[in-house]
Amino acid sequence: MIHDAQMDYYGTRLATCSSDRSVKIFDVRNGGQILIADLRGHEGPVWQVAWAHPMYGNILASCSYDRKVIIWREENGTWEKSHEHAGHDSSVNSVCWAPHDYGLILACGSSDGAISLLTYTGEGQWEVKKINNAHTIGCNAVSWAPAVIPGSLIDQPSGQKPNYIKKFASGGCDNLIKLWKEEEDGQWKEEQKLEAHSDWVRDVAWAPSIGLPTSTIASCSQDGRVFIWTCDDASGNTWSPKLLHKFNDVVWHVSWSITANILAVSGGDNKVTLWKESVDGQWVCISDVNKGQGSVSASVTEGQQNEQ
Amino acid sequence: MEKMSRVTTALGGSVLTGRTMHCHLDAPANAISVCRDAAQVVVAGRSIFKIYAIEEEQFVEKLNLRVGRKPSLNLSCADVVWHQMDENLLATAATNGVVVTWNLGRPSRNKQDQLFTEHKRTVNKVCFHPTEAHVLLSGSQDGFMKCFDLRRKDSVSTFSGQSESVRDVQFSIRDYFTFASTFENGNVQLWDIRRPDRCERMFTAHNGPVFCCDWHPEDRGWLATGGRDKMVKVWDMTTHRAKEMHCVQTIASVARVKWRPECRHHLATCSMMVDHNIYVWDVRRPFVPAAMFEEHRDVTTGIAWRHPHDPSFLLSGSKDSSLCQHLFRDASQPVERANPEGLCYGLFGDLAFAAKESLVAAESGRKPYTGDRRHPIFFKRKLDPAEPFAGLASSALSVFETEPGGGAMRWFVDTAERYALAGRPLAELCDHNAKVARELGRNQVAQTWTMLRTIYCSPGLLPTANLSHSVGKGGSCGLQLMNSFNLKDMAPGLGSETRLDRSKGDARSDTVLLDSSATLITNEDNEETEGSDVPADYLLGDVEGEDDELYLLDPEHTHPEEPECVLPQEAFPLRHEIVDTPPGPEHLQDKADSPHVSGSEADVASLAPVDSSFSLLSVSHALYDSRLPPDFFSVLVRDMLHFYAEQGDVQMAVSVLIVLGERVRKDIDEQTQEHWYTSYIDLLQRFRLWNVSNEVVKLSTSRAVSCLNQASTTLHVNCSHCKRPMSSRGWVCDRCHRCASMCAVCHHVVKGLFVWCQGCSHGGHLQHIMKWLEGSSHCPAGCGHLCEYS
């Protein structure tokens, strides 16, 4: 069973991960799907994969039920394990790379309730920071905020690294979405707690900021609801939820298009729907792909078949 | 962790009831075994050997079998087994190689019955025959298995595995004479109890030691084995060669495996190290456990289902000195947590979607979904042949491609590549971009460009372009047709953008006004406008929609339509000046021109000659200043840019920003501009449009953006005297304390242009060197080098 599929930065490669412990990379250029790598190294189902920004090379992170996070790197056409992080006490459910402006930073959310942040410090070394008890019972998803620089860029002396405020969102089994912010001393602090879901939060997706003055987060949950959270004020403290839709089944994924105006939602009813905000601020479904046709008969046969 | 659910199961005569519970033992347990009445459990370990009664709410210690004055090694148990036919009979395997049987029916405190001291090393496993009351089997570290008849004092037969050590022995449940044994070298052997000379069958089951095995309670040929290679394998032993049916991958070496009663495909495992949890697997789903019990804090050493026909109660003993009863209902279910779907929005607007195949396959014959008409997004589905999964929990991976014209990002790439952002007069840029947008079917954007052109450019050129049209009558007719055609095309785009239309309307109204005031020429297009002599109607009314579009369309249409049209040569220098003027006067200029050019930057053919607009400026000022403040349009344009940016089309925002340059820059705050620029550049780079991205960086006015191009470019300067790297300080070399760039002719420090000979590295002011070299070909510094100046 495939648990996640991610396209790389240029949209030319697709990485999938699956229960059979494998991570596969496909070339999807020109409409084809050619398997170019099969990465073996996990000892349990692999839940999620994430591509790093190409300025750091071809780097893929994967997280698994075996409590490990593996960072893979392609060198001279071959993929190899470059780092293994085994700092969690339970299944690692989600990985997400920070915006490239921050350097190579990976956030990992685990069923042990903790979120760990791996920062590349050069020469194959990774520094680990851990937020313990981020979500009770477990953390299901992490998503970084796009890189935003406080104040005007103009004031920054050129050549000096601008002082970014790093933020990310996480969703967990405590039905909450939490926003985390890095303090000046490098410690991560809970900034916001967004409460609206009535069951486990399955996925959070911070919208890419393409010319938008507002910050937007999409979240979906076991309770079948998808919320769009927006924050208009500069301080980032007041977030207001808007219910996108209530589905009849678990919603597993939300994914933004790169221009952040279309949201793809996939749910337990085996549908992918695309949503767009209309001029009057309402979210409307503009298209759906129904995967559930004939699902009734399919589910009957399901139990009798064998998996390879 | 305390879960209070309770399960009661009726099994024939007896009733099982209980809840998840645990009790503390005095010492770590090595093995447990359940009495056949399912009401008692025996726990054995290095320093513990006790029987507990399983009551509804708790475990109650019933009997301590460790009696006697001095602790004997015979009591250090590696394994324990309770006879499934005789409630009073137990056997233990001691770490010193002794096999002990216990009779609970003995009246004395010491229940020890028989002692077999035949094994040389630790006995790993003891096993009673399932149906024969007196037959006991043992497997030891010394590599031998022994079969005992409890009625005799010593073993009946000895089986040699020809191997290092036996880890497990299990009588087959169905075949009376058969038992299986597993070995440290990875082999599994099948024996006939009557044939001690050699095993019936042997095969290598695992890579590394096989720690355990278990016969399926119902399926006669099925044997599950677990090994250090972290795998549980299910073998079909009925066939000629043992056939691997299933293989479950766990995350740690498998210490125990037990089939779950009444569930054909379920088995429970616990691990030897690292992992303290107990898992229940569905062997058909080999990667994710069906259930997980997380109660233990140390390695689980013994697991046993409470009753051979009840699937809900599992008992376990652990190194953490606790005994647990687990309820299947209380188990956490990792499968439920597992995400069955993967979804990713691709760069080009395509979607990758992975879902359960059973659900997908059923509809593979379907036609692509057609979206609703206003937002036509189509999907093409392609099944990936490279995913060889089938059945219960497999997924299909599909990539949906958006077809052209839908949500695909192809337009973005095309637009980015074809837009002209600089290097030509504003009007041409606008026209060009409008044309590009139109060709890509983005009418709204095209219209915006056209509008920008009309707002910001001197309309002076348009009539000239139209001149050729009006000369021939056919020309104006063709134009007319073109307009109506385009209008139809544009309708949907307009609908979604009311605010822009409004602003357009406002912008246009004054042109209309001009038209009506100067209706020198009759034209079908103008008839509507002519109808109204009151300009106020147009300024306030909503009617302008249609004719606005007509006006808007025309200028840019005439232009690309007539590439051969001759533009007056003077127009170019004139326009260049305009490009640099601030928006205020310029758009006045626009007005100023209009009346003289018979008021039509629209499609009205003009016979009047084009005049230089400068002389007219003062007139227009007087006439129109009161009506239209200079920054009237800037606000609209700013709103328009924000609108596009919010729509996700930051490309448009940035392109307009660059093309219009100073005209709008001051109206939009720096940070927003910068944000647009960086967003757009980032997007361009994702699409690998390096050239465009570089152009944007170059053309951007924001310092933070334009300095992007200077990033990671280093300039190394060496001192011309000591040839060592200069510090960043400037003119003076740190090491030799001399000014680095002295003119060899005048011996002053050269500031500005420094020319030097690449051969001897001497040089100086350009003028001086040039002069010097006119007279001499030798280096002015006197180094003797023959310098060349080219």
From TrEMBL, chain A:
Gene Ontology MF: a single term: structural molecule activity
Subcellular location, principal: membrane
The keyword Iron-sulfur is annotated on this UniProt entry: no
WD repeat boundaries on the chain: 39-82, 194-229
BP GO annotations: COPII-coated vesicle budding; mRNA transport; positive regulation of TOR signaling; protein exit from endoplasmic reticulum; protein import into nucleus
GO cellular component terms, semicolon-separated: COPII vesicle coat; lysosomal membrane; nuclear pore outer ring
Quaternary structure annotation from Swiss-Prot or TrEMBL: At the nuclear pore: component of the Y-shaped Nup107-160 subcomplex of the nuclear pore complex (NPC). The Nup107-160 subcomplex includes NUP160, NUP133, NUP107, NUP98, NUP85, NUP43, NUP37, SEH1 and SEC13. At the COPII coat complex: interacts with SEC31A and SEC31B. Interacts with SEC16A. Interacts with SEC16B. Component of the GATOR2 subcomplex, composed of MIOS, SEC13, SEH1L, WDR24 and WDR59. The GATOR2 complex interacts with CASTOR1 and CASTOR2; the interaction is negatively regulated by arginine.
Family: Belongs to the WD repeat SEC13 family.
Known function: As a component of the GATOR2 complex, functions as an activator of the amino acid-sensing branch of the mTORC1 signaling pathway. The GATOR2 complex indirectly activates mTORC1 through the inhibition of the GATOR1 subcomplex. GATOR2 probably acts as an E3 ubiquitin-protein ligase toward GATOR1. In the presence of abundant amino acids, the GATOR2 complex mediates ubiquitination of the NPRL2 core component of the GATOR1 complex, leading to GATOR1 inactivation. In the absence of amino acids, GATOR2 is inhibited, activating the GATOR1 complex.
Stated name of the protein: Protein SEC13 homolog
Species in which this protein is naturally found: Sapajus apella
Automatic annotation (TrEMBL), chain B:
Entry keyword Transferase: yes
Pathway in which this enzyme or protein is active: Protein modification; protein ubiquitination
Molecular function GO terms recorded: ubiquitin protein ligase activity; zinc ion binding
Reactions listed under catalytic activity: S-ubiquitinyl-[E2 ubiquitin-conjugating enzyme]-L-cysteine + [acceptor protein]-L-lysine = [E2 ubiquitin-conjugating enzyme]-L-cysteine + N(6)-ubiquitinyl-[acceptor protein]-L-lysine
Transmembrane segments annotated in the record for this chain: none
Region (Disordered) location: 580-600
Cellular location(s): Lysosome membrane
Positions of WD repeats: 116-158, 203-245
One GO cellular component, as annotated: cytosol
Keyword set, alphabetical order: Autophagy, Lysosome, Membrane, Metal-binding, Repeat, Transferase, Ubl conjugation pathway, WD repeat, Zinc, Zinc-finger
GO biological process, one term: cellular response to amino acid starvation
EC number of this enzyme: 2.3.2.27
Subunit structure: Component of the GATOR2 subcomplex, composed of MIOS, SEC13, SEH1L, WDR24 and WDR59. The GATOR2 complex interacts with CASTOR1 and CASTOR2; the interaction is negatively regulated by arginine. The GATOR2 complex interacts with SESN1, SESN2 and SESN3; the interaction is negatively regulated by amino acids. SESN1, SESN2 and SESN3 convey leucine availability via direct interaction with SEH1L and WDR24.
Cited PANTHER family: GATOR COMPLEX PROTEIN WDR24
Primary role: Catalytic component of the GATOR2 complex, a multiprotein complex that acts as an activator of the amino acid-sensing branch of the mTORC1 signaling pathway. The GATOR2 complex indirectly activates mTORC1 through the inhibition of the GATOR1 subcomplex. GATOR2 probably acts as an E3 ubiquitin-protein ligase toward GATOR1. In the presence of abundant amino acids, the GATOR2 complex mediates ubiquitination of the NPRL2 core component of the GATOR1 complex, leading to GATOR1 inactivation. In the absence of amino acids, GATOR2 is inhibited, activating the GATOR1 complex.
Family listed: Belongs to the WD repeat WDR24 family.
Protein name: GATOR2 complex protein WDR24
Organism annotation: Cebus imitator (Panamanian white-faced capuchin)
